[in-house]
Amino acid sequence: MALTVNIYYTGTNGNAKKFAEEMQSSGIVDKIRAEQGNLRYEYFLPMDDPETVLLIDAWESQDALDFHHKSPMMKEIAALREKYRLKMRVQKFSEVK
């Protein structure tokens, strides 16, 4: 069962975009995309909210997502989220085949 997680990162003064840019420039995004079971990891900028970035994160299974959540990268992501003082809103969708 594939899973898609939409995470809305919201901040002030362009911090959500800076967060996404640092995630990419630091190589964290590439590491996540290389993890077994990752299907998609992409950031988008909503047209009507310049202080929010949307992450679409898709995984082959709950096990793959759980493994990702236990990885050392999660501490790096949390540290960046704190650095930019972001709030998160999460939506999770599952696809039954």
Please give the number of β-strands: 4
- SSE topology string: EHHEEHHE
Count of DSSP-assigned helices: 4
**Largest beta sheet: what is the strand line-up?**
2-3-1-4
The CATH topology is Alpha-Beta Plaits
CATH class: Alpha Beta
The best one-word shape is: globular
Rg, rounded, reads 13 Å
Report strand %.
Answer: 25-35%
Structural class: alpha+beta
CATH A-level architecture: 2-Layer Sandwich
What distance separates the N and C termini? 7 Å
Q: Share of helix among residues?
A: 25-40%
Number of domains: 1
Question: What's the main sheet like?
Answer: 4 strands, antiparallel
Q: Unreliable stretches, pLDDT < 50, 5 or more residues? A: none
What does this structure look like?
This protein has a single domain (2-95), classed as Alpha-Beta Plaits (2-Layer Sandwich), CATH 3.30.70. It is 38% helix and 34% strand. The mean pLDDT is 96. Strands 2-3-1-4 form a 4-stranded antiparallel β-sheet. It has helices at 15-25, 28-34, 62-69, 73-83, and strands at residues 2-10, 38-44, 52-59, 87-95. The protein is α+β, with helices and mostly antiparallel strands. The longest helix is centred in the first third of the chain and has 11 residues, at 15-25.
